[in-house]
Each structure stands twice: as C-alpha cells, then as structure tokens.
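Appendix B. Chain record.
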Amino acid sequence: MKRLLNFSLIAILAVVVLASCSKNRDYYQNDYETASVVDYENGTPYSIIQYHADNTYAIIESRDTNTQLWPDRGEILEGVFIEGRQSRVYNRTGGFNANIYVVENITSRDEAYDALYYYNDNYGFVRTIDKISFKNRTIPKSQAGQAGRVNIK
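Structure tokens predicted for this chain:
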C-alpha cells in the first residue's frame, strides 16, 4: 500500500510539473514586425521603409530578379527585419512573399532619404552611361565628341 501511495504521489507530481511546462510556439513573433514602404527610386532595388512599432526607418534592398515583386510606395510589409540579413517578408498589400535585404536601420526621415540617395548613386541600377560602345570598341564619352567619325569594322 505504501508503494502504491508513493507511486501515485510521484505520478501526480510529475503530471503537474510537466503540465506547467509548455513550448513557446510563437518564438519568432518577438522579431516579427510590420512596416510601410515610404519611398523608392524607380529602377533601383532600394526602398525606405518605416517600422510601425517605433516609427524608425530602414533602407531595404529587394533581392528578387522579378521587378514586379519590388515594393511600391504605400505597401505594407510583414516579417523579420534584421539589419545585415536577407529575409523573406510578406507583402500584405500585394498578397505575395518577397526577398529583401535590410541594408541599415535609421532613426530619422531625412537621414533615410540621404541613405537612399547614397545607395542608389553607388549601388543602384540607374546610372548615367560614361561610355559609348560600338560593337567591340569603346570610346570614353569625353572623347566621343572630339573624335568626329569613328570607323567601325
């Protein structure tokens, strides 16, 4: 009888202890954020987003080759935004997932625009062409006006 009582008490104690333990199934929700696209420069993958939680800003780079997946002004993005990391976020407005890279987090709107212009000028796709190409020959733009006619073979 004593053994049965001890076993019952241990079993009840084990059930109580194990029942109080639970998995945190929403562990990823700690980093999960919502942000709005404030602005972008057409033809470049860089955009400014504003986090809804603290109204700070970030520069993101779209990593999708399909430009239709690049975020537009006013769209709502949901996901994990960690500076220096690529992640897959959900575009709530468009109803699709997109790959982005958070370039940097910024506190003010003016600094965000300065950073957007910096990244677009240095790494964006819209550029003034410095050279005029003719098949296999390339002539610097500064010399193209002075060269007159160019013989192309």
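Further analysis of this model is presented in Appendix C.
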